[in-house]
Amino acid sequence: MTATASARRKESRTAAIAAELGAAIVAGVYRPDELVPGEVELSHRYGASRTVVREAFKLLSAKGLIASRKRSGTRARPREAWHMLDADVLAWRLKSGQAEPKFVFDLLHVRAIVEPAAAAMAARSHTAATLAAIETAFADMECAGHDAVLFADPDIRFHKAILAATDNDVMMAFGALTEAALGVFVRVASRHAGAPAPSVPLHRAVLDAIRRRDAEAAHAAMMALLDRTARNVERNVGRPRASRRAAKPSK
Amino acid sequence: MTATASARRKESRTAAIAAELGAAIVAGVYRPDELVPGEVELSHRYGASRTVVREAFKLLSAKGLIASRKRSGTRARPREAWHMLDADVLAWRLKSGQAEPKFVFDLLHVRAIVEPAAAAMAARSHTAATLAAIETAFADMECAGHDAVLFADPDIRFHKAILAATDNDVMMAFGALTEAALGVFVRVASRHAGAPAPSVPLHRAVLDAIRRRDAEAAHAAMMALLDRTARNVERNVGRPRASRRAAKPSK
DNA sequence: GCGCTCTTATATGTCTGACATATCGTCCAG
DNA sequence: CTGGACGATATGTCAGACATATAAGAGCGC
Fold first, then answer.
1. Which one of A117, A121, A173 has the shortest CB-CB distance to B85?
2. Rounded distance, CA A107 to CA A100, Å?
3. What is the pTM of this model?
4. Interface residue A55 vs chain B (CB under 8 A)
5. What is the CATH number of the domain that holds A17?
6. Residue ranges of the HTH gntR-type domain (chains A, B) (predicted)?
7. What is the pLDDT of residues A91-150, one digit of tens each?
8. B109 shares a domain with B32
9. Which pairing describes strands A66-69 and A73-76: parallel, antiparallel, or unpaired?
């Protein structure tokens, strides 16, 4: 576990160390506000220079995972400080064994809030160019047909193109969320169920509504699409467990 | 402009350089995929070592603002790659002169999507502890009364407490957005209009709805609150300008 | 014993200079 | 004109050193 997939590709040492440390933090290896090993110790442990460890620390601190203070050392930050929509944080959190089914449903829930609204905005604000991007992605989805893996790439492009068509810079930030969620779905789907083809009509409904600038229909169609996804994941992963909180909502 | 507010406090050199470079990038000083000055040149320009510049680069690359490749150099990334919900990115973008009224309205628009939904979730999922946090923030708001500056802190805490009460980790990521938007509002309000007191009843409506677990009412109340904020900003800042896009929506 | 100041050890922050490595241009040979 | 060799260049990594803030303990007066 000390040297996991550090040499998976042409990843720089800095990135590799950041990935391993980041994954450990989001996996809960270090409690909130607990000290992580010092720079010198980590540099020895990884056989790298202190420079590299420090640069990895900077990457992680920019993502809200750690904070350094002189003399005190570097501490893992509590979960509410993590940048949950950062692509790396999402990936590390989802990769760390799927010990967190609740997190998957939290993601789906946020998507169910954001993406229908995005579809509605796209219906109102799309241009020829941004609409074309959505249409291209959809066409590629149709071609990909029944292969769940091939299907994933145009699927992600489809949803990202809708975000881009909203003409709202902030909306783009949700691309990482969609991408991470779709990635999970692919892994789940490849273990269990059949072809992704049944979702094509649902995507088509979204595209059609956007094309004719029908914001309400776009909202509804996207909601339906995400509902299907949620039910699919629910069936394959199991219902979300009880909250991690001490006190549970009295319902 | 070369050495702006670099010594504003006890900011490390790394952070100061990252802040200045980051602000320059979001301000559009460097076009998308344009080279930023090399590490050695910047280290000379700032009178710092290359180490510090590199660590600043790591901070910025973790926020999606730049990307480095060997031999090629380091390039500013296009806007769609920026992590728009990162607190620093938001701050730099809003601080850079308010040359971007459209961005302020983009923020408000996203808040209008996320926060009502968050209020509804909080109504369903809050616990004794998370509800107490909301109530405390609200009480402090009432005390702050008519001072727009004093009002801002409990206001931010109020909205963040609602996000925390959703019992959804991903929701916490929107705290930075709320905080940034409220900061803008304070600056706008201090230049123009009167006391923030009129918004107290609107906040109270949100709190009451959450307390009695009425999700729909909480959604509506939060929407009303944000509507008021939006109209306020609109009145003081002016309507959003036309899109920056080449082709405009045909309407 | 209790509280205060002063010292000291420690971990991060910064600097320097060097070498490694990938890659973009260019140039030359076929 | 094509394709491969080669050097220049900017980032990536390394090593060792010093600076600085500060938590923790030592010492001291009360």
1. A173
2. 11
3. 0.88
4. yes
5. 1.10.10.10
6. 11-79
7. 999 987 655 788 999 999 999 999 999 999 999 999 999 999 999 999 999 888 777 778
8. no
9. antiparallel
